[in-house]
Amino acid sequence: MLNAVRGRRPQGRGELSDWVRGFTGIRIPSRAVCQGHSSPFDMFARQVLDRPSLALWHGPRGSGKSFLSALDTHLNSRFNPRHETHILGGSKAQSEQIYRALKALVIEGRGVYGGDDDTLDRLLKTEALYTNGSRVSILAASPTSVRGPHVASLKLDEVDEIATDIREAALGMAMDLRGVKASVLMTSTWHKLTGPMAELVEQGRSGAFPVHTYCVFEVLERCPTSRSGRKLEKCPECPLMAWCHEDRHLDPKLRPKAKRSNGHYGIETLIQKVKGVSARVFASDYLCRGPQAEGVWFTQFDLADNVCEAAEFDPALPVHIAVDSGVFTGAVFFQVNPGSQWATVREPLRVNVFAEFLAEGRTAEACALALRALADQMCGIATRYVSTDSAGGARNPVGPTVISEYQRCGLVGETGIQQWPKYPGCVTEGLVLIESLVRSADGTVRLKIHPRCKHLASAFLSYARARRAGQWMDYPADPQHPQEDLIDALRGGLRVALPDGASPAEPLRRAKAGRVF
Hints:
By secondary structure, the chain is α/β, with parallel strands linked by helices. Helix content is 34%, strand content 17%.
């Protein structure tokens, strides 16, 4: 009877949960406690039962991503005869972690109904062979690994550590075989601002494939009353309180996250992480809030607040086109809404960036023609002001100046081509101006970027300070292409558009003539 149950493929979420607990002893947390997150069981069940052609799991370090991926691999292998799976880890150590997960699940795993070890014929560090002819190859991602045979299942573990060209080559190995449709599962923590995970998350959120995110609170053990107190009176003593209670302002009746979680990750272990890592690392590696760059300049920049559709082109306002030329040529198209000076209205000045341009290794002529075409497309007949770095007026030994090329190609505005102010401290002053627009001290956001300006938004997230002798400096790192090419363009263009800075003008006030004269 038990063998019949064990040998029948689970058909629904309930059967899947019972099978996993009954024959491996694993209980997968089934409740998401953070807004916008998936529960580990939900993403696992969708992977096993729906078998999407491509999916991404974004989770914290040490939370069981590789373990659940290995469990999905085992189920596919034992229920599909002669099934082929390739597991590519971001490193040799990561690949060995998958081997250890298979060993713990299949060889050592035991539930209330026993184990499933007799389905496995042989388990080595580089492969697993099943009695039904299925095979799992466990490899470190490399150009050699991705030239293997076609397989129905492909696992890319710690995909943020796998080079984009290797990942894209690996996808070619996945193919429908023996009645089983191809499926690729990518799992990773997200460390790098502009690495593979950043690209994949963006693609997934645009609808290309499902993305499931969960954090350490989804897998945290339930907080006992002995720790929190019956009425949570002991919570202020806990180093986790800031994150555990952070969403309770939305609903005072909502229990803290650790009172709703029911996972395997120890509270003491998480407290150890809080005390031992920086806030930046804790936010990215354990709370899964995306990577946070050390020494990032624009610490107040927020995608939710500074990037929105409202930054679209307004035909009633003039357009500023600021260009930073060089090996990388970056340009931004923005408009300044001066707001209102009247005391009864008090609308703040606003800057909307609605288009960008970024090119590498192109001539000044090619960039000028491309920018002029983009301006015609995006701005129509609106009044234009064009500005660029004064260094563009320097003649090089092999050709004309950049500015003269721009003029020859018609990339000029109402006042020709204005040059950005250049004096000691001008770079820092320009960056301070941008900071004040990103978010002022009173919390006002005056800089909006249209979602189409993806390179500029990415530049804001990763533009960094220089570091000397372990200390962060008050000037930017150099070079940092292509981030600096877009930030410099915006910095220079704003110094031309707002020569007096972004402080709103003092509102006009009425007074009796006798008090004035």
